Hints:
The structure holds two protein chains of two kinds.
Chain A: H1 2-29, H2 34-40, H3 47-57, H4 63-75, E1 81-82, E2 87-88, H5 89-124, H6 129-143, H7 146-160, H8 177-211, H9 214-221, H10 226-263, H11 269-278, H12 282-310
Antiparallel strand pairs in A: 1-2
Chain B: E1 6-17, E2 20-32, E3 37-41, H1 48-55, E4 64-71, E5 74-75, H2 81-87, E6 92-95, H3 99-102, H4 109-120, H5 126-139, H6 145-150, H7 158-170, E7 176-180, H8 188-205, E8 208-213, H9 216-222, E9 225-230, E10 233-239, H10 240-245, H11 250-258, E11 306-309, E12 312-314
Amino acid sequence: MARFILRRILQAAFVLLVMSFVIYSLIGLMPGDPIDIMIASNPGATPELAAALRKIYGLDQPLLSRYGHWLWAAVQGDFGYSRLHSAPVLAVLAPALWQTCKLMLISFTAAVLLAFALGIVAALRPGGPVDALISLFAFAGISVPVFWLALMMILVFAVDLHWFPASGIATVGDGSIRDYARHMVMPVITLALAQTGGFTRFVRASMIESLRSDHVRTARAKGAGEGRVVLVHAFRTALIPVVTVMALNFGSLFGGALLTETMFAQPGMGKMIYDSILGNDYNLALTGLLFATLVTLLSNLLADIAYGWLDPRITLA
Amino acid sequence: MTAPLLEVTDLGVSFPHAGGRHRVVAGISYALAPGRTLGVVGESGCGKSVTALALVGLVPAPGHVEGSIRFDGRELVGQSHAAWRALRGADIAMVFQEPMTALNPVMTIGRQIAESLVLHRDGMGWREGEREAVGLLEAVGINAPRDRARAYPHQLSGGMRQRAVIAMALACGPRLLVADEPTTALDVTIQAQILDLLQDLQDRTGMAIQFISHNLAVVSAIAHDIIVMYAGRIVERAPVEALFAHPLHPYTQGLIATLPDPDHRVARLPVIPGSVPDLDTGGGCRFADRCPRADAACRIAEPALVEMAPGHLVACFKAGA
């Protein structure tokens, strides 16, 4: 097990290395560079000044040698300066990453728990009225776009009912936890609902199959009660494929988080990466994208570990 | 003869079908005494498994059970879910066909055996149950039972898994064991071992066994009495010796004729032409279409079970002829 994790971490490090080069090259290939934007706002700038600035920033050097410099600094923990924020990249990134992780983790947990409950209930009587209702809800969850859902939430719960604030992460001058929590409610619900639909369908399908399996019949033949049959025998085996799908999905949450953060004007990773790419903020964009890669790799690793833990037939080696 | 432990009278199971109800089995009557083994034989789809499921109250929804099942004098048909749960796994235990899929793949063998004990014995805890499971594994002839109890089903061979399933069924000392094709998924040598094991366990505990198989040869090795089923009906019921010596129903005769005889090698084994009819065929004997002796009368009325010799019943108009 420890060897498996160590090997996967080494693999992840290698993937990150390759990805850093790919992302670095893609950013380098973008038309324009930070100097273009710097001099664009300065009417007195001359081509000579631009050339001098390029020399100072090392932008006159070939891509490969620039990458080499960046990598050498990065492995020592120095990810450079953010041009847009005039601050070290990590100092800019950390609060945004924390904000996004909070949003992702809370909404993911909510989505998983809700999907478990709905999927199990729907699977008890497939084709019944409760199942039809839950399937409709799941289908709506899959079909409704996140941005539309966010707009509707804002319209109903912020504009009309005044229950929750429409945007931001806190009210200025109010530092209470309650205030932070109130600002999280709508983004979390939006992002959670966007995932619950798909998850519910997976849980339902897996539970239906599991409830039909021979070992569940054996459990019944042993005299186990319906609750024990469903929750211990059927659910435990139904979890195996479901957990894999869910964990793999966690990485793609980043995309959903970007939309949600934009709609609710929250300063998270999604918005930060978007702004940094538009603003030619090389360092910030690169590091931000690498962290997104890291989250995806970590969720894949967690999926494998969860898989091995849930299914004794799988040995991690 | 001892009083019967199990008395089934006019048992039927029906499922909704095309607006009406389709009776997959009907008119099943027999009795089973403690320490005796009843073999139930028939082709796939003849209703033997659903009959077995009715005995433990596990006929899948929307199936409906009618008639009477008396176990130790108590009527089982129509009893509450709680009463079924208390009975299942305790007094009536079941062994299923596929030992691989019948076991929970993510639970250790010991825990699965212990579960029966924990569910049915007052004050039994998991730790104690798992300790007792080791003894049960030993009783069904598993080597190194302590290690096996900690193993998961996929770590055991097919024969060992079926032994574990039997240990699970025996955990609470059932008085009736319903074994649905327990040897079908196993190698022939393992089949013989499992049959020996069941016989041995019966000698020790005095339990009654209802042994279901499509294989007449296997059934004849373990059963005292045999029921031959065809398309949801009992066509012949007799002690095993009588059945083999004087099979009365043309279907039984066909089954016996299809058994390979090592003394007479033949190029092609005999077969019974045709296959089991799918649905209610209306009136008439259900075997008529495949029967070499059927005539017009056989297609009009369904023959009832008639006792032709003591303990030997047959449902055929032509049996006496």
